[in-house]
Fold:
Amino acid sequence: MTESSISGHPEGSIVPEQIQAAREGSPSALGSLLELCRPYLQQVAKEAIPSELEAKASASDLVQQSFLEAHQGFAQFQGGSEAELLAWLRQILLHNLANFIRTYKGTEMRQVGREEGLHLATGDWLGPEISSASPSEKVVEQENLERMRQALERLPEDYRQVIQWHHQERLNFEEIGERMGRSAEAVRKLWARGLEQLRGELGSSHES
Structure:
C-alpha cells in the first residue's frame, strides 16, 4: 500500500509544479498542498496515537500543529515528489506526537508521585471513606490503615508530629516551625525525611 493510497486521494494528485510553487513562496500554493495531505496525516495520527491517550490527544490538533511547523519550516524540505512530501510531513507529525506522549507521561508520573505521597501521609489513614467498597475491599483497606498507624507509631516523635500536623491539620511549614521552634526550611527537610522513613517502615512491614 503506498502512502498516496493511504491518504485517500488518488496517487499523483500532488505534482512537482505545486511543490515548486510552494517553495517559491506562494502561501496559497503551500496551503493547498498541505490540505491535499491532510487526509493521509489524519489517518497516520489516528493509527499512531496510543489507545490510552485517545481521549487526551486529538488527531486534528496534531495535524494542525504539524501544518503550522510545515509552514514555518518549508524551506527545509528538500524533496520534489508527493511521496517525499508525505514522508516529511509524517516525520513532523510523529515527532509532535512523541513530544506530546513524553510531556503527558512526565506530567502523569509527577501527578502519580504526588498522589502516592499524599495517600501515604495524609489524614486518610485516620478513617477514609470506604462505604462504597466491597466487603473484601474493606477488609484490605482496614489492614492497610492499621499498617499505616503502626508505621507512624514507629517513627521518631518529631517525624510523626510534622507529618500529622502538615497533612491532618493542614498546617504549612511556617506554622509548624512556630510550634517546633524551627525554621520553615528545617521543618520541610524534617517532613521529607519523615516521609522517607515512613515509606521504609511500610515496606518492611509489608515484607514481614
The chain has two domains: 3-117, 122-207. Residues 122-207 form a domain with the Arc Repressor Mutant, subunit A fold (CATH 1.10.10.10). DSSP finds nine helices and no strands in the chain.
